[in-house]
Amino acid sequence: MVAHDRLPRLAARGVARLFGWRAVPDPTTFGRWLRRGGAALPELLDEVLVHGEPELAPQPEEGVTYADKIGPADRELDLSRPAAGLVDRVRALSPHIGARAVVDGRPLLVWKARVGDDGSLELLEVQPEGRRRMSYDEYLRGLR
Q1: Residues forming a β-bridge with 101
Q2: What's the rounded Cα separation, in Å, for the pair 32 and 21?
Q3: For 74-83, what is each residue's pLDDT tens digit?
Q4: Reduced 3-state DSSP string for 92-104
Q5: Could you state, in order of their start, the residue ranges of all structural domains in the chain?
Q6: CATH class in words for 72-143
Q7: Contact by Cβ (8 Å): 128, 139
Q8: How far apart are CA 115 and CA 11, in angstroms?
Q9: Extended strands (E) in 35-84
């Protein structure tokens, strides 16, 4: 266990209000999820700062995990893997650093994707090297 996993945390009630959704609705990205939680931040700060000392509780020892820093290998999309897992990775890395894939021999940052009706990965928004973000359709038109 890493020492920072034992730091006190705000009481579960306040954190649950800020980030307490049981599931992140599809196709929410981390950035959208954070913005949604950020809307509750003023209320939480008001409760904590105006109404006395924050209620602190130690993090339970059971179930504690450590997440390593996201590295280059974590950003790579293995297009041979199931589409649902690839979409989850794209959502987790958007809008900050993006997922990387090689499509038809060309490297792309993938910002949005979904699982198609046939279960395959459908790219929706990409960014070729040295270019701006664009829809995948725009990207394909530019290849012609």
Answers
A1: 108
A2: 13
A3: 999 999 999 9
A4: HHCCCCCEEEEEC
A5: 3-57, 72-143
A6: alpha beta
A7: yes
A8: 37
A9: 56-57
